[in-house]
Design brief:
The structure holds 2 protein chains of 2 kinds. By secondary structure, chain A is mainly alpha-helical. Chain A contains 13 helices and 4 strands. Chain A has one domain (60-296): MetI-like fold (Orthogonal Bundle), CATH 1.10.3720. Chain A has helices at residues 8-35, 51-58, 60-95, 103-115, 118-129, 135-142, 156-171, 173-184, 188-196, 201-228, 233-239, 252-261, 270-296, and strands at residues 38-41, 44-47, 262-263, 266-267. The longest helix of chain A is centred in the first third of the chain and has 36 residues, at 60-95. Chain A is globular. By secondary structure, chain B is mostly helical. The longest helix of chain B has 32 residues, at 70-101. The chains are: A mainly alpha, B mainly alpha.
Chain lengths: 304, 279
């Protein structure tokens, strides 16, 4: 019989993944959190405990920017939840309709923006919304709404919402696909049983399908949350590191980049950058925990 | 099927809604591409018209070819994406095999440890990653990007692949063992070919974010010779803001490779997304 010898092959199978993952992901993550506890005085590292976080939250110079970025980030997330996910669910509901023709074609076409990079998406929309080129105003003119046009990306009060909607345009394909998959997995017998009881069309969606896809909606919400609180690229591409006009589109990702690398005359500050990363980590962790313990365990799941 | 479900009015409304949204999704891309083939004057005078004999021009593409080193950027993106995907698939499959095949002390903990990275974005550790890359001299090399993307892709890869490997029949593996195959041969010869569809799903999921990433190329490898296509086009467009022909052509050239990849892999991608691999 096999005696208790060390099974080396297990270690060999695990080693590459665990090593790369630990060295390039987990270790830097903790190292970043540790760096946030230090400051630099005369080119030597000094341990200052939570001082950097105190500066970030309460020192007027930093805190104003931090709370602004955090608030903007929540607004960014809210727009995704209120616009992207409902549109995604609606598209999926239509697409999953049995015997709908060209469903695969629509599905592939609507998913195209999702595969484009932020650079393409950011510049494309910047050009289209540009008052110089005039595509957006002339299209609004065609439907008689020209008076509504404004250089949205240049106005403090609209810029963030506009960018959030551009991001919604880009990512609507993801909730659409995941919900579509969930809807397809609902067995036909359940829907037929509903039909016999006279539940068809829209009421079948609200009363039968929606409760069954709630777990998928939960997953989409947490994916959106993590993605939004870690966003950077779209804002950087279209508004630059300063997230203008007047920081009105600044979110945590751009704030961290600016702090960490510096911009124009301000020098980069890795310790404060780490402190912001620490705050982002905490926010994402809280969000994931709320999802895992507060939402996921309470959503009623139906055995299909 | 029931009559209520195939009402012609409903069908029209559904097609109407889908066509409307498809137009919204494709219109911006379409506008960029048609205008990249026009003269500057035509771009401004009739932005929505297709290029005709009068307005056709390739001047933008000529500027891009002359000024930007797009071929090098493309090559860098290709190397980074392909090598990272290879590592993610190979290392991920090996770890997934260890976790799903063997019972050993710490199996569950190791699984949870590797799963941590699914929800926590690697960007949070950027400050320390840059420090480490500077210390090891990897900054401004493609290796820095490859390592980061490999680490980023592994958690989900291990998770998805181990789900699939649990479904591979034990009889097959045991038959291999009876025949005296080593554990390595069992993995590479028997198990890997069977989970190929799952590997393709993982590859397609990782391909797009790696190809499109801007953050890490910007921070870890901004040097001219290591720029990826995404960073390269961002910098190029930033410099040529007022040259509309060049900007539109550069955007179209950046769209093209992704669209080609999408056409090749869209079946795989959609099958992966809808097969519940990420549930």
């Amino acid at each position: 019989m096999q005696t208790r010898r060390i099974r080396w092959h297990i270690a060999v199978f695990l080693a590459p993944a665990v090593l790369v993952y630990t060295a390039v992901m987990i270790f830097p993550l903790f190292n970043t959190l540790r760096l946030a506890l230090f400051t630099e005085v005369d080119q030597t590292r000094v341990y200052v405990g939570l001082q950097n976080f105190r500066t970030l939250f309460f020192d007027p110079i930093w805190s104003e920017q931090f709370w602004n970025a955090l608030g903007n980030n929540f607004w960014f997330f809210l727009i995704h939840m209120l616009v992207q996910n409902p549109i995604g669910v609606a598209l999926a509901a239509i697409l999953s309709h049995p015997r709908l023709r060209f469903a695969a074609l629509y599905r592939s076409a609507i998913f195209i923006p999702t595969i484009l990079s932020f650079v393409i998406v950011g510049f494309t929309w910047k050009l289209i919304l540009s008052p110089l080129w005039g595509i957006a105003p002339s299209m609004l003119d065609a439907v008689g709404l020209k008076s509504l046009f404004a250089p949205w990306l240049g106005k403090e009060e609209y810029a963030l919402t506009t960018l959030a909607l551009v991001s919604v345009w880009q990512f609507v394909g993801i909730p659409m696909m995941l919900i579509y998959a969930a809807l397809l997995s609902i067995p036909e017998e359940i829907l037929e049983a509903g039909e016999i009881d006279g539940i068809t069309g829209a009421s079948a969606f609200w009363k039968i399908k929606l409760p069954l896809i709630l777990p998928s909606i939960g997953i989409i919400s947490i994916l959106t949350f993590v993605g939004n609180f870690n966003a950077f690229d779209l804002i950087y591409v279209s508004q630059g590191a300063l997230a203008g006009p007047d920081f009105s589109t600044d979110i945590l990702g751009t704030f961290m980049y600016r702090t960490f690398f510096g911009f124009q005359l301000q020098l980069g500050d890795p310790r404060m950058g780490s402190a912001i990363a620490g705050a982002m980590f905490a926010i994402i962790l809280v969000g994931v925990c709320i999802y895992l313990f507060g939402i996921q365990t309470r959503i009623r799941r139906y055995q299909l | 099927m029931n009559k209520a479900r195939t009402n012609p009015l409903n069908t029209t409304a559904m097609h109407g809604a889908l066509i409307l949204y498809t137009l919204i999704a494709l219109f911006p891309v379409f506008v960029i591409i048609i205008n990249s083939f026009k003269t500057r004057r035509a771009i401004f005078r009739e932005p929505l018209a297709l290029p005709d004999a009068d307005s056709f021009s390739l001047i933008g593409y000529q500027t891009v070819m002359k000024q930007g080193d797009f071929f090098l950027y493309f090559q860098n993106s290709m190397i980074v994406t392909v090598v990272s995907l290879t590592f993610i698939l190979l290392f991920g499959a090996m770890a997934a095999f260890a976790l799903s095949e063997y019972r050993f002390k710490g199996n569950l903990i190791m699984g949870l440890y590797l799963a941590l990275g699914i929800m926590i974005p690697i960007r949070i550790g950027t400050v320390a990653i840059l420090e480490m890359m500077v210390a090891t001299g990897l900054v401004n090399t493609l290796w820095a990007l490859i390592l980061v993307y490999t680490a980023q892709g592994l958690p989900l890869a291990v998770f998805i692949l181990s789900e699939f490997m649990r479904q591979v029949s034990d009889d097959l593996k045991d038959a291999g063992r009876v025949d005296g195959l080593s554990e390595y041969t069992i993995f590479f010869r028997l198990v890997l070919p069977l989970v190929r569809p799952a590997m393709a799903t993982v590859a397609v999921f990782n391909m797009i974010p790696i190809w499109n990433d801007l953050w890490f190329p910007l921070i870890l490898a901004p040097a001219e010779e290591t720029k990826t296509l995404t960073l390269g086009s961002q910098v190029f467009i930033g410099q040529f803001v007022t040259d509309w022909n060049a900007v539109l052509s550069a955007l179209s050239m950046a769209i093209l490779p992704v669209l080609v990849l999408y056409v090749i892999f869209s079946r795989q991608l959609i099958r992966g997304l809808t097969s519940g691999a990420v549930k």
